[in-house]
Write a structure and sequence with these properties.
Elements (H helix, E strand, L loop, with lengths): L1 E9 L3 H9 L11 E6 L10 E6 L4 E10 L4 E8 L5 E13 L2 E12 L2 H33 L1 E3 L5 E4 L1
C-alpha cells in the first residue's frame, strides 16, 4: 500500500469548507479535473453516498463514502470503479480542521497498484507524485472556489459563478 497526504491552510472557516466538501455529489464545482459529477444512488451526502466523476480527459471513476464523521468534519471515500487507473484499491480521507481564524484541509490517499512488484515501482516513480500533484490542485480549487464563488474548470481555470 502507498500513501500520499496533502494539506493546505485556508482563510475560510471550517464550517464553510466542510459545507462545500460534504456536498459529495457536486465535486465538479471545485475539482480541476472533474468536468461533471453526480450522485449514483440519489444520496448527495453522508455515509453511503455514491457518485461518479467524469474527467475532462474522458475517463470516469465511481466513489462511495464508507466512513462519515461530520462532528469531526471528516469522511473516507472508497473508489469503487477505478476506470483506466492501474489500481486494485484506493481510498481518500478528507479532513477539515480549525486553524487559527481559518482551516486546515487535508486529503490522505491510500492506494494499491496493479501489476505486483512492477506496479510498486510504478507507484514509487509516478503515481505518488501524480497523487501529490492532484491533491495540491484539488486544494487550490477548493480555496479558489470559496474565494471567488466561481466554478473551477479544467486545469484550475475560473468558470462562471456557481
Amino acid at each position: 500500500m502507498h500513501t500520499v497526504t496533502v494539506t493546505r491552510q485556508m482563510s475560510h472557516s471550517p464550517k464553510r469548507v466542510w459545507t462545500l466538501l460534504a456536498d459529495f455529489a457536486n465535486t465538479y464545482v471545485y475539482h480541476p479535473i472533474v468536468a461533471e459529477s453526480a450522485s449514483t444512488n440519489n444520496q448527495d451526502t453522508g455515509l453511503g453516498a455514491a457518485r461518479y466523476c467524469q474527467m475532462y480527459d474522458g475517463n470516469r471513476v465511481e466513489e462511495k463514502i464508507v466512513d462519515w464523521d461530520p462532528a469531526a468534519r471528516r469522511y473516507l471515500v472508497q473508489v469503487t470503479e477505478h476506470g483506466p487507473f492501474p489500481l486494485t484499491h484506493m481510498t481518500a480521507e478528507v479532513r477539515v480542521e480549525a486553524q487559527g481564524d481559518g482551516s486546515q484541509v487535508s486529503y490522505h490517499f491510500e492506494f494499491t497498484p496493479k501489476f505486483g512488484p512492477m506496479g510498486w515501482v510504478m507507484a514509487k516513480l509516478a503515481l505518488e507524485k501524480g497523487f501529490t500533484k492532484l491533491g495540491d490542485q484539488l486544494l487550490e480549487g477548493i480555496d479558489q472556489h470559496l474565494s471567488t464563488g466561481r466554478l473551477i474548470e479544467q486545469d484550475g481555470a475560473l468558470g462562471a459563478a456557481a
